[in-house]
Amino acid sequence: MTQRYAALLRGINVSGHRKVPMAELRALLEGLGHRDVRTHLQSGNAVFTTDTGVSEDELTAALEEAIEDRFGFRVDCLVRGGAYLAAVAEACPFPTAGIEGKQLHAFYFSGPPDVERFAAIDQEAHRPEAFALGDRVLYLYVPDGLGRSRLGDVVSRPSLSKGLVVTARNWNTVLKLVEMTRED
Fold first, then answer.
1. pLDDT surpasses 70 at 184
2. Which of 43, 60, 84 is where one domain is finished?
3. Partner of 46 for a Cys bridge, out of 7, 62, 79, 177, CB 3.0 to 4.6 A?
4. How many Å apart are CA 152 and CA 138, to the nearest integer?
């Protein structure tokens, strides 16, 4: 039995730093025994098929180790199954019809975030921007885009997600990864 997964790499290919060419990432994933490997964009999104029975954490650890061995630097990664990604998209508490990808983001966490830390944020002070927590994800609605968002700066503070790996994707990428990991 096989399953489709997405690998989300954090902080690569930004301003010429921590370069991980997508062709090399595909080859690396194939070298780990994964099949049907495809990448999306240059920002560290890959999908692959592998045998079931291996946990997301085990897949993540193997990928992080292989990247460090190949490229000489550590890259935090998250590996998530296609069913989880679809559930995240379906559970979005914000209206998604007609929205631009830059207006809605999913911040994926390596584990459950500390709800109390996020509850301390005064969301009213940041309206019309808003966020909501889900299953190992934070949804962030920013009508003017993340680059101009004050709330985005607040929810991105390392102290809020202490001890967790966090990587964000805009809504277009969220939906594309759901499509790419869909089991036919």
1. no
2. 84
3. 7
4. 11
**pTM here?**
0.94
On whether residue 182 sits in a domain, the answer given is no
- Bond into 128 cis (ω within 30): yes
Range of the domain at 110: 88-170
Stronger pLDDT, 1 or 117, i.e. the higher one:
117
Structural domains in the chain (count): 2
CATH number for the domain harbouring residue 47? 3.30.70.1280
